[in-house]
Design a protein that fits this description.
about 500 residues; alpha/beta; 8-stranded parallel beta barrel; about 35% helix
Length: about 500
């Protein structure tokens, strides 16, 4: 079927609508003591009995509390010199206000439940790791507007709503391959992110400082305030879609494609106004925007975990969604123990090392009630390994009737080092893994539910290839990352067009 410009604009407005993500109004609404449901009958579990310490329903004999992870094996955790200093930092975080609210988390859960039923697509994007020194409103704005551009392209292209999630307001800590780094014979603790230690290779900077968690909290609060302002304060108004183009992207081929697409939407909006549709209402002027980060630094996550007074469930109020990484998803590990008890939507990253049997056990641990929208499987393998291993994972999930959102992370399995020592990712390999992801889901009859990328709104030269024509020789020009290489704005937008075209193929729509 052919999608008219007017219909596309309506779908686009629907996909980008509302400001409810940052409105915890549902916290004040009465709830029944019995099972609560959403319009999909999926997003709410039974109310927890008064006094319970677990988010599991009555009858589950596994005891859980926000601190029960301490009885499990905790990988990738920094070693602090002073327990007293750590206790003081955690006590400070115990007293601060939550960064997000349970009502917001439930709003995201509802949208992810729809995606799990094939009724949407997830876009997760942002920095590899946030830093204190790069914190600036302009940096947040530019990343936000690239995500908005990508979401607009995907929504128009796929004719389905796009759930927008930023790797922001908490994505500080990073897992490390080695606990220590050695330079010229000197061994110091590895840099684990600005909420653990500092990047400079000195003993003072590399000391694991628990009070940096408090600094990270306050920066996250500022970031969320900025995101709230952008998402509901007029910046996200669909009539400003031309203004979302970054200067360095505007002159590229993808920037031109975006402007042409924006012109089509402008024309549709003018027609809608002409027939009496009010395009000044919130459905056209604001967006739902959520945050997510890797659940890694467990003292921080525990300190920001709160019990919701309306449902009795526990929520990690540091972020709307959290994911557990490939290196910390052990079945007997502390990270799965912590996440199994919180009400947030969760993700888990899996590589080709994950077997179908292991994946099913992970799913049963993280989502024992099989609630749609609760768990996303974030696949990171590389194209060839994905084609070989993903079908078996999908087949096992389908056989057992598990409800998950399948998300592609096409960047982490495609990292390499150049001869000059730069860590980079080739755009062609990223595109190949995305193509393999869609191909496998087409073959298996399952829904490709989203994409998870490390990207920035800055004009960096960290990943090679794509329309920006970055190569190994030009990586050094603007290689700014403190951790892993990120797609720049033009590369991210190019990726969005590729995904949109592939989604149009799946729905039988003509090319953009």
């Amino acid at each position: 079927m052919r999608l008219s410009a007017t219909s596309a604009a309506l779908l686009l407005a629907s996909g980008l609508s509302g400001g409810a993500a940052f409105t915890p109004a549902s916290l004040g609404s009465p709830r029944s003591s019995t099972t609560t449901t959403t319009s999909l009958d999926v997003a709410s579990a039974p109310r927890v009995a008064s006094g319970s310490t677990s988010s599991f329903p009555p009858g589950d004999d596994r005891e859980w509390s926000p601190s029960s992870w301490k009885g499990a094996i905790a990988k990738q955790m920094p070693v602090y010199e002073s327990q007293e200093e750590l206790d003081d930092a955690v006590a400070t975080l115990d007293r601060v206000a939550p960064l997000v609210f349970a009502g917001e988390v439930r709003s995201l859960h509802e949208k992810l439940a729809r995606v799990s039923q094939g009724q949407g697509f997830v876009l997760m994007g942002g920095d590899c790791a946030e830093s204190f020194k790069e914190f600036h409103v302009n940096h947040i704005r530019d990343t936000f507007r690239v995500i908005m551009q990508m979401a607009l392209v995907m929504t128009f292209g796929s004719a389905m709503p796009v759930v927008k999630i930023g790797r922001m307001a908490g994505q500080f800590a990073k897992p490390r391959s080695e606990p220590n780094e050695v330079i010229d014979g000197v061994s110091l603790p590895s840099y684990r992110g600005d909420n653990v230690n500092a990047e400079d290779f000195t003993a003072e900077s590399r000391r694991n400082n628990p009070h940096l968690m408090v600094d990270a909290y306050y920066q996250s609060a500022q970031t969320l305030n900025i995101l709230r302002a952008f998402s509901t304060g007029g910046f996200a108004d669909i009539s400003r879609l031309h203004a979302w183009n970054l200067d360095f992207v505007e002159d590229t081929e993808e920037g031109s494609r975006y402007q042409k697409l924006a012109g089509k939407i402008d024309e549709s909006l003018r027609f809608m106004k002409a027939i009496g549709i009010d395009t000044s209402n919130p459905a056209f002027t604001s967006v739902d925007f959520y945050t997510a980060h890797e659940c890694l630094l467990l003292p921080y996550e525990q300190a920001l975990t709160r019990q919701d007074s309306t449902t009795g469930k526990w929520y990690d109020c540091s972020s709307h969604m959290l994911w557990v990484g490939e290196r910390t998803r052990d079945l007997d590990g502390a990270h799965l123990e912590f996440t199994r008890g919180i009400g947030n939507p969760l993700g888990v990253k899996v590589s080709d090392k994950c077997t179908p049997e292991e994946l099913l056990r992970i799913i049963e641990t993280m989502n024992p009630q099989n609630v749609p929208g609760k768990l996303s499987i974030i696949v990171r393998m590389g194209a060839d390994k994905l084609r070989k291993n993903l079908p078996g994972l999908i087949r096992a999930v389908q056989r057992e009737g598990k409800a998950v959102v399948w998300i592609s992370d096409p960047v982490h399995g495609n990292t390499r080092k150049t001869d000059t020592g730069f860590k980079t990712r080739d755009f062609d390999n990223i595109r190949a893994e995305l193509r393999a992801f869609f191909d496998v889901h087409d073959e298996m009859g399952s829904h490709p539910g989203g994409v998870h990328v490390e990207m920035t709104g800055e004009d960096v030269t960290e990943c090679t290839g794509g329309v920006s024509a970055v190569n190994d020789e030009t990586l050094k020009h603007r290689y700014n990352t403190a951790c892993d290489p990120r797609l720049n704005g033009s590369q991210a937008l190019e990726l969005a067009f590729l995904i949109a075209e592939r989604m149009r193929l799946r729905t039988g729509l003509p090319p953009l």
